[in-house]
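About this split. The held-out portion is used to measure sequence recovery: a designer receives only the structure tokens and must propose an amino acid at every position. Recovery is the fraction of positions where the proposal matches the reference. Here is one held-out target exactly as it appears in the evaluation file.
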């Protein structure tokens, strides 16, 4: 079989499904419907000429051929990422390019500031070209795994073998409602879990159900991939949901939003720097990483 770009896309989808543990768990990562995912895998199986997996009431499992394809595809994408990194290094030699991945809407958090690190890095390595990208957490993790990003800074939804994670800081999240929601003017002492369960709750695709655990509901009434989308749903008055405290503060200050039972409904998300340690880090990557760790260690309370 001669490979082309469409085949590589199908292989990436297949790898994501296997890593997620099945079609349904992979939906949030791929942002595709079950029928579309099934159609893509059927197309890939037709192209290959054999079955890759069993799916249905019995659950998801790989065939022998499917396991071989997964192992080889995983190695292929790893090699492609490493090749691209090496080619950038050879091409840029003296100038170099460092790609850093961030997640959205962290700029209002005083704990998340990397501006000082960037300033120090640019002063010490003025010929390096910095490339900053913003992704949702699950996509950012995938970019680090494939080598498209050298350092990812995020509260990652899960850990992946082969990557190293270094704690930087924690982000406080609280549970909010908008000014037009029925709970906005209700005193906290009258609000309990049963009261909250009467209303629509937002879930984040990348949080893997953590935002629903307290309320024991099977599925969210709306899903989002970033904080701005969640804030819009909460501000509509039709939904309740978690937001980073620093991000919600602007709306709280305007009287458009309030935290519900902040004594009970809160969670902390640990932000980490993640990078691939399967091979020696490039000097410019190591330099930025060392500066980043040093800066956050200095800001961390003793």
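Reference sequence for scoring:
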């Amino acid at each position: 079989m001669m490979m082309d770009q469409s085949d590589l896309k199908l292989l990436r989808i297949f790898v994501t499904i296997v890593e997620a543990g099945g079609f349904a768990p992979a939906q949030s990562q791929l942002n595709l419907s079950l029928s579309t995912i099934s159609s893509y895998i059927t197309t890939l199986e037709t192209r290959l000429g054999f079955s890759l997996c069993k799916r249905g009431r019995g659950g998801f499992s790989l065939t022998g051929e499917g396991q071989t394809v997964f192992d080889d595809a995983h190695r292929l994408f790893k090699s492609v990422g490493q090749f691209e990194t090496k080619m950038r290094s050879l091409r840029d030699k003296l100038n170099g390019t460092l790609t850093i991945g961030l997640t959205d809407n962290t700029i209002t958090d005083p704990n998340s500031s990397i501006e000082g690190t960037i300033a120090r890095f640019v002063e010490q390595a003025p010929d390096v070209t910095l490339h900053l990208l913003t992704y949702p957490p699950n996509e950012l993790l995938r970019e680090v795994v494939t080598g498209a990003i050298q350092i990812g800074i995020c509260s990652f939804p899960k850990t992946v073998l082969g990557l190293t994670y270094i704690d930087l800081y924690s982000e406080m999240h609280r549970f909010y409602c908008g000014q037009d929601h029925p709970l906005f003017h209700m005193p906290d002492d009258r609000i309990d879990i049963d009261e909250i369960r009467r209303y629509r709750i937002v879930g984040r695709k990348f949080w893997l159900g953590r935002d629903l655990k307290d309320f024991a509901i099977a599925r969210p009434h709306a899903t989002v991939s970033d904080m701005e989308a969640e804030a819009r749903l909460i501000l509509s008055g039709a939904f309740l949901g978690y937001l980073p405290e620093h991000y919600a503060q602007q709306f709280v200050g305007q009287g458009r939003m309030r935290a519900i039972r902040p004594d009970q409904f809160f969670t902390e998300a640990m932000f980490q720097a993640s990078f691939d340690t399967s091979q020696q880090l490039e000097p410019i990557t190591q330099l930025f990483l060392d500066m980043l760790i040093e800066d956050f260690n200095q800001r961390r309370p003793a």
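Annotator remark: Residues 78-169+270-299 form a domain with the D-Maltodextrin-Binding Protein; domain 2 fold (CATH 3.40.190.10).
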